[in-house]
Amino acid sequence: MLAAGAGASATAVKCPAAASTAPPSSAVAVQWEFSQIGSPTPANPSVSSSWTRGSGSWSAARATGTICSNDSAAAAATRELVLAVSGASKLLPQTTRLGLLGVAIVLPVTVTATNDAACTRGTAGSVTLFASYYAVHRDSIALHFAPACADHDLVFTGASVHVLIARDGHQVNSTSP
């Protein structure tokens, strides 16, 4: 646990149980949700294990939601972040990544709680999600931050990564409803 100062909390960072309130269910809003547990891709010497999850919605080129991240390493304290998703966002249907067609969304984030003294509250970043279409699922999550939080710039792919980007329960093929 870190002492107060430099933007780190004096107590343990608490991730909201659901990572956000349930996104609205409508034909207009796009719901996004993801989770991952495991090591980043490629391996990162400062992170041996990680879990990251979040959920929210996208409508009219704006996203909202909450994301929680927890990184640990054998020789270091666990680093925890809570991120608010709010603001202009890009939805990219019919995108090819990892050799598969799917949908991507770029989410603007701000650190709202942290126990990492180097990564202070208020630091901006982005989280890019990719969900592949069809039966073969190869999803990805990429976190990118301003220099103060660059140690949290991580990419996740593989079987432990699950991303859902849907409109009223269906795959997203366009930015309009």
Give the total of domains: 1
Give the C-alpha Rg.
16 Å
Strand content of the residues, in percent?
Answer: over 45%
Percentage of residues in helical conformation = under 10%
* Secondary-structure class: mainly beta
The total beta strand count reads 11
Distance between the termini: 46 Å
Largest sheet: number of strands, sense, barrel closure: 11 strands, antiparallel
Can you tell me the overall shape? globular
Order of helical and strand elements: EEEEEEEEEEE
Q: What does this 3D model show about the protein?
A:
The protein is mainly beta and 177 residues long. The protein has one domain. Helix content is 0%, strand content 54%. The protein is built from no helices and 11 strands. Strands 1, 2, 3, 4, 5, 6, 7, 8, 9, 10 and 11 form an 11-stranded antiparallel sheet that branches. Strand 2 and strand 3 form a beta hairpin. The N terminus is likely disordered.
Helix and strand arrangement:
Elements (H helix, E strand, L loop, with lengths): L29 E9 L10 E11 L2 E12 L2 E13 L1 E8 L2 E15 L9 E9 L7 E6 L8 E4 L3 E7 L2 E2 L6
Antiparallel strand pairs: 1-2, 1-10, 2-3, 3-4, 4-6, 5-6, 6-7, 7-8, 8-9, 10-11
Task: Give a short overview.
0% of the residues lie in helices and 54% in strands. By secondary structure, the chain is an all-beta fold.
Task: For this entry, give a set of tags.
single chain; 177 residues; mainly beta; eleven-stranded antiparallel beta sheet; globular; disordered N terminus
